[in-house]
Design goal:
seven-stranded mixed β-sheet, 8 helices, about 190 residues, alpha/beta
Length: about 190
């Protein structure tokens, strides 16, 4: 990746899914790679199952952690509806990396609305680059449904010119040692190794 250009990654999901660890891991890795990195605070109802957004921006010099509409190189989404909610932030040549899991928002839970059908297909019909996979099943196969965030980081890593060993080293430095093997496995499964 060109260090002269600031790159923008939005991590979106539902409170409690691990977006904070994902943004911490990504920020740590990019700092190790010599980039100037800005990571935003979590925005949203993070403790109530509401929509949560973090921004990770990196490049030679980054002045603000905020990503404007039409500026995200990547939207990394823990859930399909959250990906759809933030489409207007994606650059025309940006990419969506999305977990195909569906988590019902409150209007669906209460019966006031129904979960939209075929969201991935609708995004692709708009001409968007979508990399969708069942990260929840992979996380469960790795040993814990809580590892969806690391499966997503594994998938995202496929789009970076950063050696896999450096990603694994960042995981080692960011997760408690008792969860290290599970997270390594989740990362590799997301990457397709």
């Amino acid at each position: 990746m060109n260090t002269n250009t600031t790159k923008n990654i939005m991590i979106v999901g539902v409170g409690g899914q691990g977006s904070l660890l994902a943004s911490k891991l990504l920020g740590h890795l990019l700092l190790q790679e010599g980039y100037d990195v800005k990571v935003s605070e979590v925005h949203g109802m993070s403790q109530r199952g509401g929509s949560v957004v973090t921004y990770v921006r990196f490049g030679e010099k980054v002045y603000s952690p905020i990503i404007d509409k039409g500026q995200a190189d990547f939207i990394v989404s823990f859930e399909k509806l959250e990906a759809a909610r933030y489409l207007e932030y994606l650059k025309p040549d940006g990419r969506i990396v999305v977990n195909t899991q569906e988590i019902d928002p409150m209007p669906v839970v209460t019966g006031a609305a129904s979960y939209p059908v075929n969201l991935i297909g609708k995004m692709e019909d708009l001409g968007l680059s979508v990399d969708a996979m069942d990260c929840l099943s992979l996380a469960e196969s790795a040993g814990s449904s809580k590892a969806v965030n690391i499966v997503l980081m594994g998938r995202l890593s496929r789009y970076f010119d950063i050696p896999m060993e450096k990603w694994l080293s960042a995981i080692e430095e960011c997760v408690p040692s008792r969860f290290l093997e599970l997270n390594r496995k989740a990362f590799l499964m997301g990457r397709g190794e």
